[in-house]
Amino acid sequence: MDVQDRVSVATFRSVGGTTTRAVGNHPFDATVRFPPLSTRKSANMPPASPALPVSVAIATAAIGFGLIATPVTSANAVDQSPPPSGSPSPTPTSPPVSTWPGSVLVGTSVRGRPIYAVRQGNPNASKILLAVGVIHGNEKAGRRIVDAVRATPVSATGDVQIWTIRSMNPDGMAATIRRNARSVDLNRNFPTGWSRKTPGAGRAPASEPETQALMRFMSQLRPDATFVYHQDWNMVLGTCNWKTRSYGLRYAALTGLKRESCGRAAYTGTMGSWYNSNFPGYMLTVELPGTRKVTAGRVTRWRNSVLTASRELRDVDPTPVTPLPPTPDPGVSPSPSPSPTLTPQNR
């Protein structure tokens, strides 16, 4: 466990279709139940594209309901994400994000290494940004951005919360290999567009504990923006996608990285395709340059780009992060609230 991750830790544990949150060894009274993603989308999103294959749909539903109990390599090309479908107005996640501790154990890797997410900023802020430093274990430069963001104070009374994960592939990072410990490319293992013909895609959609962990975590966090770092194409992907184009162009300008050229073949089972096609928020794949070109000055600029993006963030996911007020009983007249006592402390 990294020094910067040593905060109060909440663990998500699956128990018969529900997931219990615990701090240390003391479980919360509340349980987390993962409803189907289709019931938690924005009512204003465009209609869905044609249905996914049955195996992919089953895997996504299993992750969403918490039925898969396992806790939850150079770049991506164009993510051809289908538009998300519409649905009724969402309700807060359970428990609401605002009640989560500052450090969350998202899950563990094949070898049992922990995957932590750390929050900075205002727990009650409705605008949420997530940055993931490493998904391919031999592309490590993103950790430096995450570490630089964590070392920078973020206002606890502002209108944004920033979550960071140093690596979602700690086994691959420890061995300096692209794939995880079962030789699966985690960025080909997500359900959307998954294909068993793709090298390293895994035995089934979301077959890996690291993939499952991130899907569960992101399904609950529902960030408005997500940046996932790779190497070494030196460009921001997403500028050719109808949903992410404007965000990709802006982030390329902030980082000084190139924008992708359109017309590339799409990869299968990517994290970006899964998130962009299932949630109102957006995700960008950010290709950093080779390690020798990752200078301290550039890391500082990339850190600043995350902070600037957080300040410019729009609340595109309407899911509340705080508990809803109790619904009044229509048959009972509300009692008038007593006036506060004027004392020297509250005058």
Please, could you describe this protein's structure?
With 347 residues, the protein is α/β, with parallel strands linked by helices. The chain has one domain (3-311): Aminopeptidase, CATH 3.40.630.10. It has seven helices and eleven strands. It has helices spanning 54-65, 142-150, 170-175, 209-221, 245-255, 271-278, 296-311; strands at 9-15, 18-23, 26-32, 103-108, 114-121, 127-132, 160-165, 225-231, 235-237, 258-259, 282-288. The protein has an eleven-stranded mixed β-sheet, sandwiched between helices. α2 (142-150) packs across α7 (296-311). It is globular.
The helix tally amounts to: 7
Can you list the strand order of the major beta sheet?
A: 3-2-1-4-5-7-6-8-11-9-10
Number of domains: 1
Classify the beta-strand content into a percent band: 15-25%
